[in-house]
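Deviations from the work plan: none for this task. Representative record:
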Amino acid sequence: MLIQHTLQYFAQHTGHILRATEQQIVLVLIPIGLAVLIAVPMTILATRVRKLYPWVIGFSNAVQTIPSLALLVLMITLGLGIGVLPSIVALFVYALMPIVRNTYVGIDGVASELKEAAIGMGTTKWQLLWFVELPLALRVILTGIRSSLVSTVGFATLAALVGGGGLGSLILQGLSMASNSIVLAGTIPAVLMAFLAEFLMAQLEKWVTPRGLRVRVGGAGER
Amino acid sequence: MCRSFYFPIPMHQLIQYASFCLSKMMRIGQGNPPGRVGSVRIARDSITGIHLLRLSAGKGVERTILRFIDLTKSYADQTVAVDHLNLSIERGEFVVLIGPSGCGKSTTLRMVNRLVEPTSGTIEIDQRDARSYPPVELRRRLGYVIQQIGLMPHLTIAENISFVLKLQRIGKVQRRARARELLKLADLDPDTYLDRYPVELSGGQQQRVGVLRALAHNPEIILMDEPFGALDPITREQLQDELKRLQRSVQKTILFVTHDMDEALRLADRIVVMKGGHIVQVAAPDEILRNPADEFVANFIGRQRMLGRFQEMDLRSVNACGADSEMARQATPAEKVTVNVAGEAVRSSC
């Protein structure tokens, strides 16, 4: 019964759902893109200038402790009003923490003897970062981006509460009309998006990991 | 004596480098009679195609390549790692720093490539204060091998060997050719190893690559910080023999740190025994065994080894003349000798 109604809704309001999905994609990609562009360099800087680290991680952690709903409302009180802009800002700051944490762990976790060997061979600071630290930390950084991305897909549905649109608006509409099929019309694409994001990021991680870094089972070592 | 040093560098930098080197050599020559400065030539490496700057030093050039003058390193908590160390190392010499842990041998080594900055005193490389080089440039003139191997796990063997060349922005084709050439030098089949990753190699093979990596840019001086410490005894001895052979063929100056007396005796032209930041004794292996400077050196060598090695040394001095052990045995008739065969002491009487 429910399935039938949901399918019916999908068929009748395809354009509406597609538009909401599009909005949802914008609500996810822009904050994540910004978070990557800002958090990764900031955190790398924090691995050089240790004094910065408590501020960088402190801010991104503190934001995470605010309930997501409250954060959206906070944007209104901060004077950003309602609509897409406060949603993007809220999603952006919410997405920082996993990226900051993993970038730091990834860069900081590069074995000190490798760094020392590289410095001893005459790397400049940039070469050390570019040829040694980033390639070795890349997988961990991507894992951070992945968890950030997946949680943002979920969180982005709440943007509808402050008029940000997206799939959340379908869910809200369904709730107010007490129609499960409309709720599902918003939920199913959101879930699929989360799965797709997860899958694509996993593929990306695999693709960027050179053979030498993949864990070998029953390694071809001694010969 | 006349020696040549090669620097692989991109073509467009040659002119710049040539003039720099010339001015540098003029400075070296200043203390010497005129006309003995040397020459600068541009040569093309036939195998790699890399353009090399060839500096031929004149006869007046000092044999000393590395000199420590009152070298001291102390830390904020008043501990002194290296205390007024004085030492001169000649070109092509294999010098081993040895001592118990905390004696300052590693610190001394790491001050050469400025991973550690001296508190006071001077390190002269080619008569020039090491501090007058920018650290990055200095390090690229030196080879560096460390205990934990330090191969980059995300890079292939070819990329690892030519890592320093990559830092110098030398093209991929040339880098690969150089890696191929060096693998051949160590009797490793290039086609098998070039595209492998470090995890696909055994520990011994990895450290062979680690040594080759230090040779890739043709440094005059190679620094080695307990490079074979993590290897099993048999592999370690193989690599020691290979290193000694390699050093003879490429004529590099090697400064080697170890705490293993056997290793020092096997490799060194001169052994520097250190304790508490001081030099206790500097001498050839033979001499150290015969005349240890004091009780500390004697204990460090170990009575057992002194006895065993003493006889073995006689054999070795004969070996050095190109004789094999069979001939050596004939040369010391009616004498009991200890022959070291692949790390095992075999007693034989002739």
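Residues 4-57 of chain B form one domain.
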